[in-house]
Design goal:
Chains A, B: Keywords: Oxidoreductase. Chains A, B: InterPro entries: NAD(P)-bd_dom_sf, P5C_Rdtase_cat_N, STEAP_metalloreductase. Chains A, B: This is NAD(P)-binding domain-containing protein. Two copies of one chain form a homodimer. By secondary structure, chain A is an alpha/beta fold. Chain A has a single domain, classed as Rossmann fold. The first copy, chain A, contains seven helices and nine strands; from the N terminus they run E-H-E-H-E-E-H-E-H-E-H-E-H-E-H-E. Chain A has an eight-stranded mixed sheet, sandwiched between helices. In chain A, helix 3 runs parallel beside helix 4. The longest helix of chain A is centred in the C-terminal third of the chain and has 16 residues. The first copy, chain A, is globular. The model of chain A has no long low-confidence stretch (mean pLDDT about 95). At the A-B interface, strand 7, strand 8, helix 7 and strand 9 of A face strand 8, helix 7 and strand 9 of B. Strand 9 of chain A pairs antiparallel with strand 9 of chain B, so a sheet runs across the interface.
């Protein structure tokens, strides 16, 4: 299908990379630790890119801890020009009942503030536990201001067999981050033994 | 099952009242306009209470527009002592991409701030469109600080054939209100032709 670059070498990078490859996408992995990027790329059957270089993928997924996303986008700078940047992070506070940042924003919006010309930001995947991404067929909520970028991300999500659900503009990323909190809250209350994801349930009209 | 009082005579009062009666609950309806309360009570096969009096129900559902909930709880004052107050409101801003109030709170938390001694507040039902409540089997997210109050509301929700999902303490009501926004956002993007609700999807472990 498409060309995807994943920045990050952790569990979510591995889970999304595995699905992306299985879905027929060309995948590149980038990590600050080149040996980790090489290892993950090899494990996935992907290419390893060079940290900070122009990503090969049109879609660049920042599979990083939330406090790393904005600094990395700043560091990549013009290397991300024209790219669709997908932020998957969850900025939880220490007690998992609020967000770590000012409640008026989201990591995705902060990324948009520092992204280079022509880049678009889409929030996606943050409401899904890694194990569910590996084993389930969860819905994927997306938010973004660029219809074109959301169309690209929608095609990618469909290529990996999942259903994208467009909740609106990038401002809604704040509420998707809240839904990350809700997901953790449900799991903490024993819902679904952790094998669930927020999604929609449909009913006959 | 239980004794439920619904304060309000609008569409949500009617939808929840219908389900409550069908679920075997004793239902009382209260409205500032007594004739509307009488009419709805008659239509439901419920009792009509007197505005401002001590509700017959242990659970009191405020089926009111969001900006009416806190004033009505203040007006009822000690008449609500010891009750479980269920706030179902959605405080949307004019553009449906944010909440109408300070983003650090929720209507449910504001209700808790003015509720009388012994009353507990539970947020519930706000993520569900009325038509889905009438025709579907949506999940019902709940949040509250009192385990006993949540157990009462859980029993009520189960009595009407729906699945309660406990997301945590009352502070999480803020994020449930955000999920109301997400629901509207999804509908605005054509998801499920409006015949859907946010809920969980479970996967084999």
């Amino acid at each position: 299908m498409g060309d995807i670059t994943i920045i990050g070498t952790g569990n979510m990078a591995r889970a999304i990379g595995t699905l992306a490859i299985a879905g027929g996408n060309t995948v590149e992995v980038m990590g600050r630790d080149q040996s980790k990027a090489d290892d993950l790329a090899k494990a996935l059957g992907a290419a390893a890119g060079e940290w900070g270089a122009v990503p090969a993928g049109d879609i660049v997924i920042t599979a990083l801890l939330y406090d790393g996303v904005v600094p990395v986008v700043v560091e990549y700078a013009d290397a991300l020009a024209g790219k669709v940047i997908v932020d998957i992070s969850n900025p939880f506070n220490a007690t998992f009942d609020g967000l770590a940042h000012s409640e008026e924003t989201s990591i995705a919006q902060e990324v948009a503030n520092v992204a280079p010309a022509g880049a678009s930001v889409v929030k996606a995947f943050n409401t899904i536990f890694r194990n569910v991404l590996e084993d389930g067929r969860p819905n994927v909520f997306i938010a973004g201001d660029s219809a074109q970028a959301k169309a690209s991300v929608t095609a990618f999500i469909e290529s990996i067999g999942l259903r994208p659900l467009d909740v609106g503009g990038l401002k809604m990323a704040h509420w998707l981050e809240g839904m990350g909190l809700v997901t953790v809250g449900l799991a903490g209350n024993g819902v679904g033994h952790g094998d669930f994801a927020l999604g929609i349930n449909e009913f006959a009209g």
